């Protein structure tokens, strides 16, 4: 608990005003909860004709005698009305005191809840913002080892669990304990013997309840992990729904989903049983305590004549006001365990160290004037090297093509140039500056990336195209669409550039989506273009249109083209043939054909396709 509170402290301190006001109003709420039952005594005394006789006007003697002064003043006023035969007015005064006390108690309770609401919602909103900021800044390598659904479950489910359970701790450590303290203080003024009995009950109940809840946190953590797997299954199913249906794999995915759902059901039931047991257990212990109090208290009232019956009724009310918060504490302690398990998962992401932050002395780069040098780089994602001592130089304004079989390391070059990953050995330089010494933002501002998968977001064409240049005018957007050969279909849309592309751009064909992606890169207008198999997923007609768009885009730019279809890179200034992470051949198209090596074989194979 202390660890979680320490981790939450930077978020809570921002809302310290609401913390203090919550504590202030909860203190008043607890005080008036205790006073509410004490205020019943004057009314009961009037009803049972037990009102103390005070015949002289009370004199205020200072703060230490305030309680006695208030009681004597009340009984003096009430006694006066009773003596004059106006019992209704006496009863009205005492009832007004009861109503006023309960009213104030609830007003203070309302204000306390308002401020804890502002605190809870504010802290959790900041947590969500920090989580998203962390998620978007962590390198791609972080997600290669995790399911997207698990990350989504932490941002959504776990933070909601913290909201629903963990912030009850404020009530746990302020309102309920203070209610018990104030009630016990007043109870001791009635009977110390009866009060001691109640005091003995509270730790007994707490011990029994805590023993039941020992396994709750671990089970909650496991349930939240399974929820992450469940969300991942849903996300994968929706992403690959065409494949699922075309391979008649619905039953396989249903079984996978049902297995996770059944695990969650089993864990949820186990957690629920323990949660549900907290209330009845504390209530049964409370009833037993009340029963013994009635027996023992009845003896003090009826036989020993030590305590007045009206005072005993008020005492019982105070005893019940202790049992209610004790029960609330027992329930809250279970829910806090759920919240702690959720908080552990949230802070695991927030505290994950980003291994690819900008160096402290990193510099901005805003121009590209000479060349890109890739010098003796080696890289591995896991254990095996994907690139081995790879070197190439790309002069400004030239087009370099990378070709080779799948797994030869072509796309890895794009990942390293953009610093999605860092090299294990060697270095990459732009204008003789190691890219590790540059800020990632300024480095990526020099580059435009078009990938094999046309990644569009569920927004308008306009907002998708201007992603890299938010202040772009409509005229600039239209110009980029024309260069990308996309205007020919966008102009026929009823809403033009304000048309929504749909989820992942599914309102358009593959070729149309790719041309919109190219338009996005064109509008950014970077000096370096990286094309990662930008036409490999397209049909022949779409490829032709996209290829024209790419050629328009690459004019007067430095381009690194990762190609699967060799027909698209015949005019490259240099073609590098890769094999198992190393350069097997390099040269122009005709030179490589004349070698009759790997490249020639690749061209020959594709010509028969």
Structure commentary:
This protein has 609 residues and is of the alpha/beta class. It has 2 domains: 2-350, ABC transporter transmembrane region fold, CATH 1.20.1560; 371-607, Rossmann fold (3-Layer(aba) Sandwich), CATH 3.40.50. The protein has helices at 2-12, 16-38, 40-47, 66-83, 87-137, 140-143, 148-165, 169-190, 192-212, 216-239, 241-246, 250-302, 309-350, 410-417, 440-445, 461-465, 474-483, 487-490, 510-524, 540-554, 589-595, 598-607; strands spanning 371-380, 385-395, 399-404, 425-430, 433-434, 447-451, 528-532, 558-562, 574-579, 582-587. It has a 6-stranded mixed β-sheet with strand order 6-7-8-3-9-10, sandwiched between helices. The two termini are 64 Å apart. The model has no long low-confidence stretch (mean pLDDT 78).
Give a summary of the structure in a few sentences.
This protein has helices at residues 2-12, 16-38, 40-47, 66-83, 87-137, 140-143, 148-165, 169-190, 192-212, 216-239, 241-246, 250-302, 309-350, 410-417, 440-445, 461-465, 474-483, 487-490, 510-524, 540-554, 589-595, 598-607, and strands at residues 371-380, 385-395, 399-404, 425-430, 433-434, 447-451, 528-532, 558-562, 574-579, 582-587.
């Amino acid at each position: 608990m202390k660890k979680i509170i320490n981790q939450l402290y930077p978020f809570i301190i921002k809302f310290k005003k609401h913390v203090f006001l919550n504590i202030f109003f909860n203190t008043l709420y607890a005080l008036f909860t205790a006073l509410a039952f004490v205020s019943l005594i004057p009314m009961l005394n009037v009803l049972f004709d037990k009102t103390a006789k005070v015949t002289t006007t009370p004199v205020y003697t200072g703060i230490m005698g305030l309680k006695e002064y208030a009681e004597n003043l009340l009984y003096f006023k009430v006694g006066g009305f009773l003596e004059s035969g106006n019992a209704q007015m006496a009863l009205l005064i005492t009832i007004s005191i009861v109503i006023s006390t309960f009213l104030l108690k609830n007003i203070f309770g309302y204000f306390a809840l308002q401020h804890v609401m502002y605190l809870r919602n504010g802290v959790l909103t900041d947590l969500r913002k920090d989580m998203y900021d962390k998620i978007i800044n962590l390198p791609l390598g972080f997600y290669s080892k995790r399911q997207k659904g698990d990350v989504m479950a932490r941002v959504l489910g776990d933070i909601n669990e913290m909201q629903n359970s963990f912030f009850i701790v404020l009530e746990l450590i302020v309102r309920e304990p203070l209610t018990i303290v104030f009630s016990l203080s007043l109870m001791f003024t009635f009977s110390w013997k009866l009060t001691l009995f109640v005091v003995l009950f509270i730790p007994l109940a707490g011990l029994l309840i805590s023993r039941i809840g020992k396994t709750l946190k671990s089970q909650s953590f496991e349930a939240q992990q399974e929820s992450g797997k469940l969300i991942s299954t849903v996300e994968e199913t929706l992403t690959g729904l065409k494949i699922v249906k075309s391979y008649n794999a619905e039953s396989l995915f249903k079984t996978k989903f049902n297995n996770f759902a059944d695990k969650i059901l089993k864990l949820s039931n186990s957690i629920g049983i323990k949660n549900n047991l907290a209330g009845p257990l504390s209530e049964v212990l409370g009833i037993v305590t009340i029963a013994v109090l009635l027996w023992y208290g009845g003896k003090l009232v009826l036989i020993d004549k030590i305590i007045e019956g009206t005072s005993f009724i008020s005492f019982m009310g105070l005893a019940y006001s202790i049992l209610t918060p004790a029960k609330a504490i027992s329930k809250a302690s279970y829910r806090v365990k759920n919240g702690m398990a959720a908080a552990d998962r949230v802070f695991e992401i927030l505290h994950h160290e980003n291994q690819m932050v900008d160096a402290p002395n990193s510099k901005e780069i805003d121009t590209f004037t000479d060349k890109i040098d890739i010098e003796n780089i080696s890289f591995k994602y896991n254990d095996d090297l994907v690139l081995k001592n790879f070197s190439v130089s790309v002069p400004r304004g030239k087009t370099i093509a990378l070709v080779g079989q799948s797994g030869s390391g072509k796309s890895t070059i794009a990942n390293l140039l953009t610093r999605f990953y860092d090299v294990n050995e060697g270095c990459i330089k732009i204008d003789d500056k190691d890219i590790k010494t540059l800020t990632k933002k300024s480095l990526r501002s020099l580059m435009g990336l078009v990938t094999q998968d046309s990644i569009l977001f569920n927004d308008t064409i306009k907002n998708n195209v201007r992603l890299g240049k938010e202040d772009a005018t409509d005229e600039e957007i239209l110009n980029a669409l024309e260069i990308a050969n996309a205007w020919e279909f966008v102009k026929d849309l009823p809403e033009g550039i304000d048309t929504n592309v749909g989820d992942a751009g599914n309102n358009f064909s593959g070729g149309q989506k790719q041309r919109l992606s190219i338009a996005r890169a064109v509008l950014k207008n970077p000096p370096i273009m990286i094309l990662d198999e930008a036409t490999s997923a397209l049909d022949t007609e779409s490829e032709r249109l996209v290829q024209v768009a790419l050629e328009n885009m690459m004019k007067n730019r430095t381009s690194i083209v990762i190609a699967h279809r060799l027909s698209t890179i015949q005019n490259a200034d240099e073609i590098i043939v890769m094999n198992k992470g190393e350069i097997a051949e390099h040269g122009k198209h005709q030179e490589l054909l004349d070698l009759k090596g790997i490249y020639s074989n690749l061209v020959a194979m594709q010509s028969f396709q």
